[in-house]
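User
Take a look at the entry that follows and flag anything odd:
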Amino acid sequence: MAVDRARIESAVAELLAAIGEDVTRPGLEKTPARVAESYDEFFGGLGLDAVEPLRDTVPLGDNDPETVLLRDIRFRSMCEHHLLPFEGVAHLAYLPGERVVGLGRLPKVVEILAARPQLQERLTEEIADTIVQGLDPRGVLVVLDARHACVTTRGARQSDATTVTIASRGQLSDPVVRAELIALIGRGVK
C-alpha cells in the first residue's frame, strides 16, 4: 500500500500556510513534495506482512540450539502521537524450536514494523509476536532502546534521554534468563 503523495503534498502546503508561511517562496516551494517522498519511506511498512521475511527457514535436525542473539539493529520510526521520529537500536533473541532463519531476516522484521506510525511499546510487542508467529521458537526476547524527538526537541527537551522497552515470550520470560541475556546485550559494541 503506497501513501497518497498528492494528498500529503496538499496537506503540507496547507500546514505551511496555517503557520503563516508562503509555500511558493524559494526554499519551501518543493517542501510538500519532499515531505510526501519522505512519508512514503517512513510509512512504507503499512500493508506489508512482517512475517514474510521469516518464511524461508532452515530445519535444525536433531540439534537443540542455544539462544540466537542479534544486537544493535538500528531502526527509526515515527511516533504516532506527534508524527516526530524516534530512532534507536533493537536487540533480538530467540530460542529456536525446530527451525532457524537467516540472520538478515530479523532486521527486516524490525524495519517493516517500524515503518508505520508507532509507539515504541507496541513496536516491541509486535516484533516479539511476529517472531513467535513466524518461527515458533521456544522463547523470544526483544529489547528496544530509542531516542524520541518528542522528548528531546519539545516539551521536556531531554536531549540525552532514551526509552527502553522489553517484551519476552516463552522460556525467555524467565527473569534469570532474561537478566543473563540483557547482560549480554549490554556488552555490545557501540
